[in-house]
Write a structure and sequence with these properties.
heterotrimer; A mainly alpha (about 325); B mainly alpha (about 350); C alpha/beta (about 525); A: about 325 residues; mainly alpha; ABC transporter involved in vitamin B12 uptake, BtuC; two-stranded antiparallel ribbon; B: about 350 residues; 12 helices
Chain lengths: ~325, ~350, ~525
């Protein structure tokens, strides 16, 4: 419990994020009664879960001082591959899911190695990888794969994640909850987590303390790719199918959730719990748009402004503690 | 043990570390600087051998028309990267430019001129805002321009929710049809762009751009107005992006709220292909434009080799990684050399 | 009324007082030397003068006019030029572009004329009377000596009213130094105000007309060079204060060698250093900053490539990376005030910092075992007497001295064979320094560890170390031990002066006086 409180103490912007999210929900529920209905909140939770899962990998990478811009197409690739491999059968999942995750890990390994060992800038490497995955999927999907994924549906279990409910909450939310716990434990209590924060905050000190900076950095990209794959599978379940371009909104969205959640874009600070708040804020903001009769365009504008404000505030609070 | 008096003194005064000033300092021959040009020649040769029709005037003119927006975007990106930053918002500015042009321009010459100026001003203002955010709000360029990209893309969507709109025929006439002294107008536009850059490079402002990218702190110590230089650079970037947007609108005779998105990666890729490092301070706009041409030629190559054009991003990505890896190797070798 | 007056200048950096109501007056037409130890305030003073740093209080008057600088460009505009110790050159620009940066000659057509730039550069070198450096060469390709010449040329190109030389000739050869000293006098003769800061006392006396000594952020003496002697200057620099007196150490260190280095060269300044570090010894490295100590330590820790031989316990080793250094049992503690190199992870708690270097030992199933961590943390706190209210609180809340103790504690937990401390006590209060001293003594007592200790605080050097090697111009100038290990000798050696043999300070009968407050 102490650890939990200390996370909030050390990252005031995370608290701000939660307060903001809660405030928005409450205010809007008062102004528009339909907003606070259980059904609506449930669908919000699903949306939040997806962004939250996508942003988990990004959180880890950003804390370590990097950035992963290959998430959109890693996500998309995993969704497509899963649909094609399983051909809609639950039984195939036994080998299909691990294979997809393994492929994702391999992609992450390539990203991570290039960035950590060849010292290629993360922005360029991951953007390039994004393009590579796009090219592969688009090229291959226009061929035989198209039948597989365009007309195929994910297996029932995956579909069920979005549709079924356990104890009143959609299954996806439970999955997210499990990951929240896992991520928080790893970040706050594990050796890996310690090393990660050290590297993101002061790579020199970390290096001199005997931490293998390169290896940890590389692992963050592996984690991010695997989480993107998980999110892709779940997203395919939510939509009922996989399609080209389903990952696009998450390029900005994943970074936004992390940054709005109070993590410093430069690394070394923040926590996944913050990203959770960030994901919730973004989700609520999106759902506000139709309510206030704003066009979808406003979402982009609002996201951009919110990110700017949060980054600026986080920057201020950092310099003040110097 | 306790030694009583132990003093050892090594006379070091005689050692001359520099050995006098040598006249012949090796002028750096950057082999890496030649790579883009070599690639350009190689690609052109390969393409021509595959399809000799490529050298016809019509085809070249069409290609140049198609390439101009990317060239402008690449120039914009190159300027910002020279200062050590990156500009992701140029995509949004381009989209917004096409949106405004496609919805607001009337058929009269007055309307065309007025709205063109407005679009250019909007682009410059967008860039200036980026500059202000980076210098005064102290937000890193990546996140700052990622956020502003989203904002401008949103405004673009607002102005023009779906691809479409109309472009005054007159505009297309002026800019695209006809020839001046036997050459298509697009050639003049490209030449003007390059001259524009060469002129800037010769000014004190141009030197300052390189200085800030090379070592912003030392530039500050040497009296350079770092903040002003950055804001001006980002403003130029925005201006160039809006020009690219105008041209693209003319090309397609329509606007599109997402027109700018693909340019973000390709402009950065072109700059890197041209040999510039993201760290800034070195390189130039002309090699970056060559890089843009290389990327376009690769597209053509893929097409002529019979490979599905869907694979283009993949090839571009792989090439980009290879180029950056070689750059990284170059840095590593240079650091090792500095030990001597 | 002097031509240049700095009155009552004060400046603090965080908790450290760099200048304390300092005064400095200069006259035009003469060379004014400025000397003092590291941290005495000389660099800060001149940085304030040229606008790089803003003072907290005080005034600057040039020719009677009050100056108000917000940035270096203001200083440049007022005719003040500074040759920076760390060089203010822009690496990717050419020599000519650097020299005329900000006031490049424009041509007839448009913008900067490259031809005029080149011509002006060559003309400038000719006026200076030196061999010209290729105007189109890029600065990053030049060796340090040439870069220093370019820096000097750059300042001269602006024809400034006030010129400050901050350790200008540190890498120049004999011939160039001679040229510089003569040229400096010429510049002053032209009516300018010339301030000359140098590590070499002989050099300063050769070139200056007046010399000001700074100590602890204040002006402690101004002398005409005809009336001053090196002895007097050295004593002003040192200060009339009581040193912590003690008797020659009763150690039997033995001859077993923990680490031996032979002819280490590397970076731009390391020019050949050889020594033996014996087991159980605290070996000090002294000398003014920038004499190669940085490269030495970085090289031994594998951060910087160096040539030469390194033997650990008699076996030749190659330290190519921090990883290999750590494997050899070498640990490095760096300067606390430099954000980039400080050893604490600011975002983490005291406990997390203390346990950072031994994480593998503390892990159970990948998670950090709290009980094991608590043991390590408590032991470190006890051993180092770290003053901390809440071990889980942010480490930044501790005082500077305690933060350094945390860094030390972290590394000590790894049971290092060779502990290297590089200026790690800068800005640390006297009491904490004494505690660290005790701790290091304990550490080496068992002969399992040895310490390599670099400090710019001379007092600390002679008290903590068994032997001190003073570095100058990239190699070892003098080795001092026993009775020759005195502050005066260290300073003399740092400045290229001959040391006094058999210098001996008699220990007092009973009490040990504590050193005066030095906030370096």
């Amino acid at each position: 419990m102490n650890r939990l409180l200390s996370i909030f103490k050390r990252n005031p912007t995370i608290v701000l994020a939660y307060v903001l999210a809660a405030a928005m929900v409450i205010i809007v529920s008062i102004l528009r009664p339909g907003f606070g209905s259980i059904t609506h909140l449930r669908s919000l939770a699903i949306e939040g879960a997806v962004i939250g899962l996508v942003a988990l990998g990004q959180t880890v990478v950003i804390i370590g001082g990097g950035i992963d811009l290959s998430i959109p197409w890693m996500l998309n690739s995993a969704a497509i591959l899963m649909t094609v491999f399983t051909r809609g059968q639950d039984s195939e999942m036994v080998w299909a899911i691990p294979l997809v995750l393994l492929i994702a890990a391999a992609v992450g390994l390539i990203n991570g190695s290039a960035i950590a060992f060849l010292e290629i800038t993360p922005i360029i490497m991951t953007l390039a990888m994004n393009a590579i995955l796009l090219g592969i999927m688009a090229g291959v999907a226009s061929g035989g794969l198209s039948i597989g994924y365009q007309h195929g549906a994910p297996p029932p279990i995956v579909l069920g994640l979005a549709r079924n409910r356990i104890l009143g909450l959609p299954a996806v939310v439970w999955v997210w909850g499990a990951f929240i716990v896992l991520a928080s434990v790893i970040l706050s209590f594990s050796g890996f987590g310690r090393r990660l924060y050290a590297i993101g905050n002061n790579p020199t000190a970390a290096l001199y303390s005997g931490i293998n900076v390169r290896r940890v950095r590389m692992l963050t990209y592996v984690l991010s790719a695997v989480m993107s794959a998980v999110a892709g599978i779940i997203l395919a379940g939510k939509f009922g199918r996989a399609y080209l371009g389903m990952g696009e909104p998450f390029l900005f969205g994943s970074v936004a959730a992390v940054v709005v959640g109070g993590a410093s874009i430069l690394g070394g600070g923040g926590h996944y719990l913050g990203t959770v708040a960030g994901a919730l804020i973004l989700t609520v903001l999106t759902s506000l748009l139709p309510i206030f009769k704003l066009p979808a365009a406003a979402q982009n504008i609002v996201y951009g402004l919110v990110v700017l404000v949060m980054v600026y505030l986080a920057g201020l609070s950092r310099t003040s503690e110097v | 043990m306790g030694d009583k008096t132990i003093v050892t003194q090594v006379v070091s005064g005689a050692k001359s570390t520099a050995g006098g000033l040598r006249q012949g300092v090796q002028i750096r021959v950057d082999i890496f600087a030649l790579v883009p040009y070599i690639l350009l020649i190689a690609l052109t040769a390969t393409l021509v051998s595959l399809n000799s029709r490529l050298l016809s005037i019509q085809v070249l003119e069409t290609k140049l028309n198609a390439a101009l927006p990317l060239m402008f975007m690449t120039t914009a990106q190159a300027l910002v990267i020279l200062t050590g930053g990156i500009d992701l918002s140029i995509g949004g500015v381009l989209s917004l430019s096409t949106a405004i042009a496609a919805t607001q321009m009337g058929e009269t010459l007055d309307s065309i001129v007025m709205w063109s100026l407005i679009i250019l001003l909007v682009g410059m203002a967008a860039g200036a805002i980026n500059g202000l955010i980076v210098t005064y709000m102290r937000v890193t360029p990546f996140i700052a321009t990622l956020a502003t990209w989203s904002i401008w893309a949103g405004v673009a969507l607002f102005v023009l929710p779906k691809e479409g709109g109309t472009i005054p025929r007159l505009l297309k006439e002026i800019v695209q049809r006809g020839r001046l002294l036997g050459l298509p107008k697009s050639v003049y536009i490209l030449v003007l762009l390059i001259i524009f850059w060469l002129l800037i490079r010769r000014t004190r402002f141009g030197t300052r751009i390189y200085a800030v990218g090379s070592n912003a702190n030392n530039a500050y110590l040497s009296g350079a107005p770092v903040k002003r230089t950055l804001i001006a650079t980002y403003s130029l970037s925005g201006l160039l992006a809006s020009m690219a947007g105008l041209y693209r609108t003319i090309q397609y005779s329509a606007g599109s709220p997402t027109a700018g998105d693909p340019f973000i990666l390709t402009s950065a890729a072109a700059v890197i292909m041209g040999g510039m490092s993201l760290a800034g301070g070195r390189g130039g706009v002309v090699p970056s434009i060559v890089g843009a041409v290389i990327l376009l030629l690769i597209n053509d190559l893929i097409y002529f080799l019979g490979v599905s054009t869907f694979y283009t991003p993949m090839v571009q990505g792989v090439l980009l990684i290879m180029v950056v890896a070689i750059q990284s190797l170059g840095h590593y070798l240079r650091r090792r050399r500095a030990v001597q | 009324m002097a031509d240049l007056e700095l009155n009552n200048i004060s400046k603090r950096f965080g908790g450290v007082v760099a200048l304390d109501r300092a005064t400095f007056h200069c006259t035009a037409g003469e060379v004014h030397g400025l000397v003092g130890q590291n941290g005495a305030g000389k660099s800060t003073l001149v940085k304030i003068l040229c606008g790089v740093v803003q003072c907290d209080g005080g005034e600057i008057l040039l020719d009677g006019k009050r100056l108000n600088f917000g940035s270096p460009s203001d200083g440049i505009a007022s005719g003040i030029g500074m040759v920076f110790q760390e060089l203010s050159l822009i690496p990717d620009l050419t020599v000519a572009a650097n020299i005329f940066f900000g006031h490049e000659p424009t041509g007839m057509l448009w913008g900067i004329s490259r031809g005029a730039l080149r011509q002006s550069t060559l003309a400038l070198f000719e006026r200076m009377g030196v061999e010209p450096i290729a105007p189109d060469a890029e600065v990053c390709d030049l060796p340090l000596a040439q870069r220093q010449m370019v820096e000097i040329a750059k300042v001269l190109a602006r024809d400034p009213r006030v010129i400050i030389f901050d350790e200008a000739p540190s890498a120049l050869g004999r011939k160039e130094v001679d040229w510089l000293l003569e040229y400096v006098r010429e510049l002053a003769a032209e009516g300018r105000i010339v301030i000359y800061i140098s590590h070499d006392l002989r050099e300063v006396m050769q070139v200056s007309d007046t010399i000001t000594v700074f100590r602890n952020g204040r002006n402690v003496g101004v002398r005409r060079v005809e009336e001053a002697s090196t002895d007097e200057l050295v004593s002003l620099i040192l200060g009339r204060k009581a040193s912590r007196l003690y008797s020659p150490r009763e150690t039997d260190i033995g001859d077993e060698v923990a680490m031996e280095v032979r002819d280490l060269r590397g970076g731009v300044r390391l020019q050949g250093v050889s020594f033996k570090l014996r087991c159980g010894e605290i070996l000090g490295i002294g000398g003014l900053t920038g004499q190669g100590q940085d490269e030495l330590f970085r090289g031994l820790f594998g951060i910087q490539p160096i040539h030469g031989e390194v033997l650990i316990s008699g076996r030749p080793v190659h330290i190519g990376s921090p990883g290999s250094a750590l494997r050899q049992g070498i640990r490095l503690v760096l300067v606390p005030e430099d954000r980039a190199t400080q050893g604490v992870v600011a975002a983490m708690s005291v406990a997390q910092n203390l346990s950072l270097a031994v994480l593998p030992r503390l892990q159970r199933w990948g998670l950090v075992a709290r009980d094991r961590e608590r043991v390590v943390v408590e032991e470190a706190i006890k051993r180092l007497s770290i003053v901390v209210a809440d071990v889980n609180g942010p480490v930044m809340r501790l005082s500077g001295g305690n933060q350094q103790k945390v860094v030390l504690g972290k590394l000590l937990a790894t049971k290092p064979r060779i502990l290297m401390l590089y200026d790690s006590t800068r800005g640390v209060d006297v009491g904490t320094k004494a505690e660290i001293f005790q701790l290091l003594r304990q550490l080496v007592a068992g002969k399992g560890s040895s310490v390599l200790f670099y400090s710019t605080d001379v007092d600390e050097l002679i008290n903590m170390c068994d032997r001190v090697l003073v570095m100058r111009l990239g190699s070892i100038e003098a080795e001092l031990s026993g009775e020759a290990l005195t502050e005066e000798n260290v300073i003399r050696a740092s400045m290229g002066e001959a040391v006094k043999e058999g210098a001996y300070t008699r220990p007092p009968p009973v009490s040990q006086e504590v050193t005066s407050d030095r906030s370096s």
